[in-house]
Design a protein that fits this description.
The protein is an alpha/beta fold. The chain has helices at about 5-10, 25-35, 50-65, 85-95, 120-130, 150-155, 165-180, 185-195, 200-215, 220-230, 235-245, 250-260, 265-280, 295-305, 310-325, 335-345, 345-365; strands at about 40-45, 75-80, 105-110, 135-140, 155-160. Helix content is about 55%, strand content about 5%.
Length: about 375
């Protein structure tokens, strides 16, 4: 049996053109190499799984003119600062820098999680980082730039990596599914991209998980929500209709059904707040682009948004948000959520009562 290679490794970009969602970085680096304007100390900052180490390896290969990734093994040195953060580790690295490369033009040193270096190690590294040999390039990578001391930052050219957009991630997952002959529903890939929270590596790990979970090796929306324990959109559309129609009993029964499926009240509240937010976003055609969902779900949001007034949605989202804030401090959390449901179901009654009181007051004054 052949060894399985996870998608994050199998589809690791081999060139800047393959890097997803970081065009501002890759374009700058390509131009720097072409124009011979590449700095000798670079700092790659950004969230996990967005391509910092990948871009560093591609850069190391390109500056040496190598096409084969394995050909550059003698020119690239990777150090994990999380486990090699002492002064001695940095001194060993500085000793290696003294020797020119055996092949190619440059020796490239990639230091991951550089913010984990001790202050003494940072200070020992300062002189070499400021005036390295002509053949040495240092690429420092970190997820927490604010922890890197200012004297290091001042010696580096800083590149800020973005969180990868859901649309870019979904498109990339579709390409991988196509190359692997996997039938994947767009709605399912959208969910995977949302769950990854901007990290492509996480999205690829979830992608592999869903493929393994499915008996036929395909990715469906139902299997995805089941495996990732995500509450189906249908529940939010249904409970919103019930609340607006003042069908309190059915709304409470729907909430009970959600609890029986293993979801907690806090999960429901945050999802309901997000649902109301999406309905508000659909009120203006200019902001519909802010919806990060599949096209068929976007149409459902638009249809429901057209049927519910803006004032109602604003009040409902405020009630749900306040309930979310007080959830953890509540002694009876189920009752806490049910009270929020009751309040939302009675928004129209409260508005009508307030209007009647205002009219009565107005008559007395007149």
């Amino acid at each position: 049996m052949d060894n399985f290679i996870v998608s994050a490794r199998k589809y690791r970009p081999q060139g800047f053109d393959e890097v997803v969602g970081q065009e501002h970085i890759t374009t700058t680096l390509k131009n720097a190499i072409d124009n011979n304007h590449l700095a000798q100390a670079l700092l790659f900052c950004g969230p996990r799984g967005v391509g910092k180490t990948t871009c560093a390896r591609i850069l190391a290969r390109m500056v040496n003119g190598f096409d084969d990734p394995d050909q550059n093994s003698l020119n690239i040195y990777e150090l994990d600062a999380a486990s090699n953060n002492s002064v001695d580790d940095i001194r060993n690295l500085i000793d290696q820098v003294r020797y020119p490369p055996q092949q190619g033009k440059f020796k490239v040193y990639i230091i991951d999680e550089v913010h984990m270096l001790s202050n003494a190690a940072f200070n020992a590294f300062l002189k070499t980082l400021e005036e390295p040999p002509a053949y040495a390039i240092f690429i420092l990578a970190t997820t927490e730039k604010h922890k890197v001391i200012p004297t290091i930052l001042s010696r580096c050219q800083i590149f800020d990596f973005n969180r990868i957009q859901i649309s870019d991630m979904t498109h990339h997952l579709q390409k991988i599914a196509s190359s692997e002959s996997i039938d994947a529903e767009e709605q399912a890939l959208h969910l995977i991209a949302q769950k990854a929270d901007g990290a492509l590596r996480d999205a690829l790990s979830i992608f592999d998980l869903i493929v393994t979970f499915s008996s036929d090796g395909n990715i469906t929306y139902k299997n995805t929500i089941k495996n990732l324990h995500i509450l189906d959109y249908d529940y939010y559309f249904k409970v919103t209709d019930q609340l607006y129609q003042e069908d309190l009993s059915q709304a409470l029964l729907t909430f009970d059904e959600i609890l029986k499926k293993g979801f907690d009240g806090h999960n429901f509240l945050t999802g309901l707040s997000g649902h109301f937010r999406n309905l508000l976003v659909c009120k203006d055609n200019a902001t519909i682009a802010l919806l990060e969902v599949a096209d068929n779900i976007k149409k459902r949001y638009q249809e429901q948004s057209n049927n519910i007034p803006t004032g109602y949605l604003l009040t409902a989202i405020n009630i749900a948000h306040q309930a979310d804030i007080g959830y953890k401090g509540s002694k009876d959390q189920r009752l806490h959520v049910e009270l929020a449901i009751m309040k939302i179901a009675n928004i129209n009654n409260a508005v009508n009562l307030a209007k009647q009181n205002f009219d009565a007051l107005k008559k007395k004054v007149s």
